[in-house]
Design a protein that fits this description.
With 189 residues, the chain is an alpha/beta fold. It is built from six helices and six strands. A six-stranded parallel β-sheet has the order 1-2-3-4-5-6. α6 links the parallel β5 and β6. α2 crosses α3. The chain is globular, with a radius of gyration of 17 Å.
């Protein structure tokens, strides 16, 4: 981060894995529960975020794809772990939630199973996939006060999208998010 900051004046966003997702991917032979592991991961993620901002990051994004994949567990302790990771952080933070890698997971649901809950997250931005043609964007109204990073490209389709296709994807979010709160992104991230 210090090297990059020394070589650019442009905004820099760094991404870190989320504590809930790490608790779902790691083998736990030590902690009494997945929640206990997630909270300790959150402490480490918090320290990493602080170090990244101190080194010059403008935005730090936490990737939490397993909140979508395992919404019941995420409701039990995921948001608590995420907010612990963000405790005391004053820089701009984003949380990325998605359906998984398009090259691997081809069947996508029409909506997020764990998105409205991010209204209770301490982050300032939420990064989502919206390129799927059937994604119900009405849930975005639940995230009032947050900037929404709208992923505009469908990575499951190698065809280059026409500008009209991108515009249509963005417009689907606008009834639910103020235009000034929309951040355009090629993908959710």
């Amino acid at each position: 981060m210090r090297f990059l900051r020394a070589h650019t004046r442009r905004p820099i966003k760094m991404t870190v894995p989320g504590p809930f997702t790490m608790s779902q991917q790691a083998q736990n032979d030590y902690y009494p529960s997945e929640e206990a592991a997630a909270i300790d991961y959150a402490v480490a993620v918090n320290e990493e975020i602080r170090d990244l901002f101190a080194a010059g990051a403008d935005i730090v994004q936490i990737d939490e794809p397993y909140m979508q994949a395992r919404p019941d567990k995420a409701r039990q302790f995921g948001l608590r772990a995420l907010n612990r990771a963000l405790a005391g952080i004053t820089g701009t933070t984003a949380v990325h939630i998605c359906f998984g890698y398009a090259a691997i997971i081809h069947q996508r649901p029409s909506g997020y199973s764990f998105l409205p809950e991010l209204a209770g997250c301490a982050c300032s931005q939420v990064s989502i996939e919206t390129a799927q043609s059937t994604l119900d964007c009405s849930v975005l109204k639940e995230l009032d006060g947050k900037k929404i990073m709208v992923g505009c490209l469908d990575l499951n389709d190698l065809t280059v999208e026409a500008p009209e296709t991108i515009v249509a994807r963005i417009k689907r979010a606008l009834p639910y998010v103020r235009p000034e709160d929309v951040i355009l992104a090629p993908i959710a991230g």
